[in-house]
Design a protein that fits this description.
The chain is mainly α. It has three helices and no strands. The protein has a domain of about 40 residues.
Length: about 80
Amino acid sequence: MQTEEIKNWPPQPDPSWPYAPLYDGLTAIFNKAIVLRSQITNIEEPNAQTDKKVAAQLTEISGLVNGLVDSFGAEINAH
């Protein structure tokens, strides 16, 4: 991948595209999941504090997923 391509990654949808908010939501979920994976990988000795941090981030990701389902579920089912 060229340097210029990396700067423009991930590609952004046209804002007039009806599913642009879905794309944005999925991007946010994937970004949070990548950060969480990195943090879990770097845990040397699990303890109650790291468990709480991981649980809080999983709850946040779950909330983002539920928000997308609430926002787009009816629309997707209508098609």
